[in-house]
Design brief:
- The complex is a heterodimer of chains A (1072) and B (373).
- Chain A is of the alpha+beta class.
- Chain A contains 38 helices and 33 strands.
- Among the domains of chain A are: 78 residues, no CATH class; 146 residues, Calcium-transporting ATPase, cytoplasmic transduction domain A (Distorted Sandwich), CATH 2.70.150; 125 residues, Calcium-transporting ATPase, cytoplasmic domain N, CATH 3.40.1110.10; 242 residues, no CATH class.
- In chain A, the strands form six sheets. Chain A has a nine-stranded mixed sheet with strand order 14-33-32-31-15-27-30-29-28, sandwiched between helices.
- Chain A is elongated.
- Chain B has 373 residues and is an alpha+beta fold.
- Among the domains of chain B are: 42 residues; 189 residues, no CATH class.
- Chain B contains eleven helices and eight strands.
- Chain B has a four-stranded antiparallel sheet. A four-stranded antiparallel sheet of chain B has the order 2-7-4-5, with no helix packed on it.
- In chain B, helix 2 packs antiparallel against helix 11.
- Chain B is extended and about 80 Å long.
- Classes of the chains: A alpha+beta (1072), B alpha+beta (373).
Chain lengths: 1072, 373
């Protein structure tokens, strides 16, 4: 494994120079070109090995440790630990070393295991068998051994091992059919062509005799672009040069279909393949909560440092006089005295840092990790998100982002196709049975087609009595109503394209008649129709379109043999054209497809996944902006958007498509649109009625928008304008997107000035890069494979589950983790600030207020479990309410619970409480006897008193925040208080033989035996909790949030249902 | 099957055993419909509203205010500063002529009078201020295992790695190991206080001061122990030297009571419990109430406090005090606790009233707003 990495590196290094060259030359079968042609330059390319693992056996420990300590928190704890080891500090190094060691070890084991899995996966891919042609025979070899220039044989249903250039196929015409589902999500079969000059090399021996070189561009990620040239050398003849395009290139990840076998030559291998270039590495995603947490952390770090600095400065100011520095009762040691004052001051500074370092506890990270890990189980356990049909529940792949679900997703992406769960024929008016060329009826009689619509049409027809049997020897066979087989000879297929928006077939019926059948969008058919029930059909089509169905018109034209000959001629001419082939074909089609007789119209309902529309509606109500990114055609995508209520009838559609930019310059179009939108905005300031905008943009235009334009001012501008437009649109539809473009859009939006949180949801492999790019990636465990689900952070069985995922789990998790983070900072302010205050009363000598055991265990055991439990099962509002009212989501949107004012409130509360603890205890102890028997307490009793008040206060504060008291809550909250008492009794109860100090001996018990201590503890707890209770009550009464309203309304729900909740009820019916 | 890129996409994700293993294992199983897993455990769902909090506020107010009054009223304390800072004060001379090597002790008498009789047991404290017993260097400078009677810590002169802990620095040893070692022990309070009642007829009556029971029982009997093996403490402490500032060795601390010598001397134990704050008091002795119960322990009248002035505090601007106090189950007189209770009680009561008005005014408005929307 290691050698391979090394080899890879070397080969890359060697090839490094070559990356500067624009093209690469591939020698098919590694055969040198004839000396006359050109110099043979053997080039080195990466091999076909896939490496996705991060570590090797040797570098695991250093690399992993390095990566772990790059986390600022870990590094901080390491520093503290080292300081404790080196200098004489108030607390023992064990207090910080042990937790750190634990955290690091657990993380390392987890990451090591994951990398081991990756190694295993890599191995299985790299060892996949491949058929390679060598010396005229087929040799089985491992995928990773494949080199550029190797000739490969691929059989039907096999996946291409790398990017290949098609040389020949088992079909006579040199074509092969390929499905690129896992690549770009299009389930259609695409046709690829071999260069005519190589398509006769149909056997191993022949292919081996092929002598040619290929010049092509360096690998680039665009799936639909490829430019190259093949030079074929024949003996004693000039080499023939043929141009190569994307239609010759078979991409890794695609699968061969309906073709027995092909021969092809490897062009791009390993990490150079277009798939690999389109694949984005899985980077660590950080949630907004984590970002806030880190920001707070930095604030606390500043507080910590300033505390230490203040204390150090004050210390030296205070002990300026020798009587204070070294009174007769408290001399320094000789060694200490000899030390330079600067070193002493620095040591003091570090000692203060160590003393106060508990303000940023390791345990917070552990608790947050635990919360995320354990919390994710609830998502997986949710039976509402379990799908009977697929037999799967929700899956959580990244637990780091649970709370992110509770963030507003300014933009929500999903691919339209994933909604098209089933396609169903709604209506069929065709008089005649129309057959389409590329349908292939398998004996098992299920249909594969380039579009689900066509499958639907054929299946629909089957139900109406016309069964399409098969295509055999260019004859299509149809079983009609009377169980008779009709045969049509398929002569030509005039493929569909988005400009013409129609397709045709020319068939010869058994009676010898030449017929041309055409189907297409109504707008493209009607102008070409000369007869038929035009008006009637038009009315029907319009009606269907309003219903949200996808309509097609069908027409035919019968050709006389002469006309047919002419047509053939035109087509062949165009097909053989080397230049402008597309254009000439289009011209030919245009000539042929005319003078139709209208037959009828079909309408296909694009049935969305269940409750998709409802889900989208809820999401919009919850304040999210929805974008649709799809590889589909614009029409299909737009229809889906209407069906899913993303676009309404009232929505004004703004188009930003290739068609428009061809008419006008991109610049003008953009400015037009932004003017429209902006005018609207200024108007809407006055009128209540707000025009709804929907934006449609296609891939080509998008890349033009994103492309840095030659004019220096241009690029940024276009982006800004585009974002500005989309910001004002309620929904945006991006069609004809390449996988990487989807990710680009996500990136673009992420970088826009509001820094919205993005969520991407999709089900296909083409959605992977987008899912990886977005803040939160959700995969649907769809029928198109599981890649999306595997690369996502969360996987759900159906689109509708997104609603519960976001509105319920997201909301709850966010509330939970926000409280967790804030509470942790709060309780550590309460914990450490008294210690800071104590320094003012102990001569800034770093004397800890609390005993070591309390310092260590405070965060680990006395106060950790209640908050962990809270962060797992708190439910401040019922799940039903959350589901019923998506607007509640707005309460937690935009990270509202972790904003600075909230943080400030918690910190101030912590400071207030800390002052109460400390000064309360101070005045209780000051100049008075605190016991019932006249004996006095010492400094450890003082600390224990403060600590007892502290533990009770912070635990009760959490109890006040808990809205959902299950028996577990009772158990843990009261249990942890009880544990504190029992531990303290035990800790002070005996002389611990292994300790060299016995300062806590009977301290706690003595304290409890004193009446004033009880009175004091009760008093201080009451004072500490009072402000928070008052604040809660006042805010709830005077400025209630929607959530709080919903909470207080719960009791009267049953009583006033009929009057108040009429609106909500009707929603109910929709969503349940 | 040819290699597929799909597998690449799986990197690290074995089907069904995905990265964060958590959910992976549940994949092909219908989730259990248990209350816990579906987050539907039965729960009490309290909401803090003005209505629910109101009674609590009133109750707290009604309980706290009386407690406060009891705390404020009860208890008697008398405090006498005998440092001798002023020229006029009787101990001025003593405070000036201080030297640790003084063999001759300086005594001074302070006159004071009691306006109220002190009933029941009276506790006598000495108080120091500006004395940082809680300084870290000072707090550390002790050896608990030595005080617990560990003989080894008495024997070692030259320190080995583990024993003779650094704790006692810089008062660990002079030429022999010091017993008891450390800064705390070294600075033991050594003034002697005596109290005399002046009868109306002018004669002085010494008031009996009991030294028993001034230290925690557990300290005296468990935490502090003399090294065992010999009942004769002189023998036990052979080979050790007394702390630098002490006039007599540890086994001669109490010449009157042989059970009060060595590490278990109660004055010593009291001193060893380091105070929390720089101004502190420590129990000096107890004046027990008279058996007949007819006359108060300390009747109203004139008293003399006789001080054997040994302990220097002027160098660090400290003060020395003598405090007489009566103690109940609620401790000594504690004005802070009483005032705090009264304040908190009143605040709660007032807040209760405020909330009551808010509850009536806004509680209804919210409900109506809910209906209209």
């Amino acid at each position: 494994m290691d050698f391979s990495v090394l080899r890879n590196l070397i080969s890359r290094y060697c090839a490094g120079e070559e990356y500067w060259v624009d093209s690469r030359t591939v020698y098919i079968g590694h055969k040198e070109p004839p000396p006359a042609a050109e110099a043979y330059i053997p080039q080195r390319y990466p091999d076909n090995r896939i490496v996705s693992s991060k570590y090797t056996l040797w570098n695991f420990i250093p690399k992993n440790l390095f990566e772990q300590f790059r986390r600022i928190a870990n590094f901080y704890f390491l520093l503290i630990f080292l300081v404790q080891l080196i200098i004489d500090t108030p607390t023992s190094p064990v207090t910080s070393g042990l937790p750190l060691f634990f955290v690091i070890t657990v993380t390392a084991i987890k990451q090591g295991y994951e990398d081991w899995l990756r190694h295993k996966a890599d191995c299985s891919i790299n060892e996949c068998p491949v058929d390679m042609v060598q010396q005229g025979t087929v040799v089985r070899t491992q995928s990773s051994k494949l080199r550029v220039g190797d000739v490969v044989m691929v059989r039907e249903d096999e996946t291409f091992p790398c990017d290949l250039l098609l040389l020949s196929s088992s079909h006579d015409d040199g074509t092969c059919y390929v499905t690129t589902t896992s690549l770009d999500g299009e389930s259609s079969h695409k046709t690829y062509y071999a260069v005519p000059d190589t398509m006769d090399f149909k056997t191993e021996q022949k292919v081996d005799s092929l002598h040619a070189t290929i010049e092509c561009e360096q690998p680039q990620p665009d799936l639909y672009k490829f430019v190259g040239r093949i030079n074929i050398y024949k003996e004693r003849e000039d080499p023939i040069a043929r141009s190569l395009g994307a239609e010759n290139l078979l991409l890794r990840g695609a699968t061969l279909k309906n073709t027995e076998h092909i021969y092809a030559v490897a062009i791009y291998t390993g990490m150079d393949t277009k798939m690999a270039l389109n694949y984005q590495s899985k980077s660590q995603k950080r949630s907004a909560v984590e970002k806030s947490m880190n920001a707070f952390l930095i604030v606390y770090l500043c507080i910590l440092i300033s505390k230490a600095v203040i204390n150090t400065v004050l210390k030296y100011a205070w002990q300026w006089s020798v009587d204070r520095d070294e009174p007769w009762y408290n001399h320094r040691t000789e060694i200490d005295r000899e030390r330079h004052v600067v070193i002493r001051a620095f040591t003091d500074f570090l000692a203060f840092m160590v003393l106060f370092n508990y303000i940023i506890p390791v345990s917070m990270y552990v608790t947050v990790e635990m919360q995320k890990f354990l919390g994710s189980y609830f998502i997986a356990w949710d039976k509402d998100m379990y799908d009977e049909e697929l037999g799967v529940g929700a899956q959580v792949n990244t637990s780091d982002l649970n709370e992110e679900l509770g963030q507003e997703h300014e933009d929500l992406f999903f691919r339209a196709l994933c909604l098209c769960h089933t396609v169903q024929v709604k209506e069929e008016e065709t008089v005649d049975s129309i057959k389409r060329g590329i349908h292939l009826g398998k004996p098992t009689s299920f249909y594969i087609s380039s579009s689900p619509d066509e499958v639907a049409l054929v299946e629909g027809m089957k139900r109406l009595g016309y069964t399409y049997l098969r295509l055999k020897d260019s004859h299509m066979e149809i079983l009609n109503k009377d169980d008779e087989i009709e045969r049509f000879e398929l002569l030509h297929v005039l493929n569909f394209d988005s400009v013409r928006r129609r397709m045709s077939v020319i068939v010869k019926s058994s009676s010898g008649e030449y017929l041309l059948f055409c189907k297409g969008a109504d707008t493209s058919i009607f102008p070409r129709v000369v007869s038929g029930k035009v008006e009637q059909v038009r009315a029907r089509v319009e009606q269907n379109a309003v219903e949200g169905l996808r309509t097609l018109c069908v027409a035919y034209r019968s050709l006389s043999p002469v006309e047919y000959e002419e047509t053939c001629h035109q087509l062949d001419d165009a097909k053989l054209a080397l230049q402008d082939r597309e254009q000439r074909l289009a011209q030919a089609y245009d000539l042929i497809e005319r003078d139709f007789t209208l037959l009828g119209a079909t309408a296909v309902e694009d049935r969305l996944q269940e409750k998709a529309a409802d889900t989208i509606e809820s999401l919009q109500k919850a304040g999210m902006k929805v974008w649709v990114l799809t590889g589909d055609k614009m029409e299909t995508a737009a229809a889906t958007c209407y069906a899913s209520k993303l676009f309404r009838r009232s929505t004004q559609i703004l188009e930003l498509t290739k068609k428009r930019t061809e008419e006008q310059s991109l610049h003008d179009v953009l400015f037009d649109l932004s003017r429209t939108v902006l005018r609207q905005r200024t108007l809407s300031g006055l009128s209540v009625e707000c025009q709804d905008y929907g934006l449609i943009i296609d891939g080509a235009t998008l890349s033009a928008v994103l492309k840095p334009s030659p004019e220096s001012s241009g690029s940024g501008n276009y982006r800004e304008i585009f974002l500005e437009i989309s910001r004002n649109c309620s929904a945006v539809l991006c069609c004809r997107m390449a996988p990487l473009q989807k990710a680009q859009i996500v990136k673009l939006i992420k970088a826009s000035k509001e820094h919205p949180i993005t969520l991407a949801i999709g089900d296909g492999a083409n959605d992977v890069s987008m899912i990886l790019e977005a803040h939160v990636g959700i995969g649907i465990m769809g029928k198109e494979g599981r890649q999306a689900a595997r690369n996502s952070d969360y996987a759900i069985p159906k689109f509708k589950h997104l609603k519960k995922m976001l509105l319920v789990h997201g909301h709850l998790y966010y509330v939970r983790i926000a409280e967790l983070v804030q509470y942790f900072f709060y309780k550590n302010v309460c914990f450490i600030f008294p210690q800071f205050l104590y320094q003012f009363f102990c001569g800034f000598s770093q004397q800890p207020l609390y005993d070591t055991a309390y310092l260590t265990l405070y965060n680990i055991s006395f106060t950790s479990l209640p908050i962990l439990l809270y962060s797992l099962i708190e439910k401040h509002i019922s799940i039903e309410t959350l589901k019923r009212d998506p607007t509640l989501y707005r309460d937690v949107a935009k990270n509202s619970l972790l904003r600075w004012p909230v943080f400030l409130y918690w910190t101030c509360l912590g400071l207030f409480n800390a002052c109460i603890f400390f000064f309360g205890a101070y005045f209780l102890f000051d100049n008075t006897t605190f016991t019932s028997n006249g004996q006095m307490f010492g400094n450890w009793t003082f600390g224990t008193l403060v600590f007892t008040v502290l533990v009770f206060t912070v635990t009760l504060k959490l109890a006040l925040d808990t809205h959902h008291w299950t028996w577990i809550n009772h158990f843990v909250i009261w249990g942890s208080l009880l544990f504190y008492v029992i531990f303290s009794l035990l800790w002070g109860g005996i002389i611990w033989p292994f300790l060299n100090y016995q300062r806590m001996y009977y301290v706690f018990m003595q304290m409890l035996s004193s009446g004033p201590a009880w009175l004091g503890i009760i008093l201080l707890i009451t004072i500490s909790l009072l402000p928070d209770v008052v604040k809660k009550v006042l805010c709830r009464t005077l400025w209630p949030t929607a959530t709080e309203r919903a909470q207080s309304n719960r009791p009267c729900l049953t009583v006033e249902l009929s009057t108040i909740f009429v609106l909500t009820q009707s929603d109910n019916r929709l969503s349940f | 099957m040819a290699p597929s890129y799909n597998a690449k996409e799986e990197d690290g994700h074995q089907p069904g055993a995905t990265g964060h293993g958590g959910a992976g294992t549940m994949t092909n199983k219908k989730p259990d419909n248990t209350a816990f897993k579906q987050q539907r455990l039965p729960a009490w769902q309290p909401i803090l509203t003005a209505g629910t909090v109101l009674p609590a506020f009133f109750v707290i107010g009604l309980i706290f205010i009386p407690i406060g009054f009891i705390l404020i009223v009860y208890g008697l304390t008398l405090l006498i500063d005998y440092t001798g800072v002023d020229m006029s004060s009787p101990c001025y001379n003593c405070s000036q002529s201080y030297s640790w090597n003084n063999t001759q002790s300086c005594t001074c008498s302070v006159h004071f009078s009691l306006d109220q009789p002190f009933e029941s047991n009276v506790f006598m404290y000495y108080g120091l201020s500006n004395f940082y017993q809680n300084h870290r260097r000072y707090v550390k400078s002790r050896d608990d295992s030595q005080l617990n009677g560990d003989k080894t810590s008495l024997q070692y002169h030259i320190c080995t790695l583990n024993r003779c802990s650094k704790e006692c620095e810089p008062y660990r040893s002079s030429d022999k190991p010091i017993a008891p070692c450390g800064a705390i022990a070294n600075s033991l309070f050594n003034d002697t206080l005596e109290l005399y009642y002046i009868d109306p007829n002018g004669s002085r009556t010494a008031i009996p001061l009991v030294k028993k029971g001034i230290a925690w029982w557990t300290d005296k009997h468990v935490k502090f122990r003399n090294p065992s093996g010999n009942n004769n403490l002189t023998v036990v402490f052979q080979g050790t030297s007394k702390p630098v500032n002490w006039r007599k060795p540890v086994f001669e601390l109490d010449p009157l009571d042989s059970d009060n010598n060595g590490f278990i001397n109660e004055d010593f134990i009291v001193w060893m419990r380091t105070a929390a704050l720089p101004t502190f008091r420590k129990l000096y002795c107890i004046i027990q109430k008279k058996p007949n119960n007819m006359t108060p322990t300390l009747p109203r009248g004139e008293y003399i406090l006789e001080v054997t002035y040994n302990y220097p505090v002027r160098s660090f601007d400290g003060r020395k005090r003598m405090i007489l106090s009566t103690i109940s189950w609620m401790g000594g007189k504690n004005p802070f606790l009483g005032i705090a209770y009264i304040t908190v009680g009143s605040v709660c009561f007032c807040l209760g009233l405020v909330l009551l008005s808010i509850h009536y005014r806004y509680g209804k408005r919210n409900n109506s707003a809910e209906i209209s929307s």
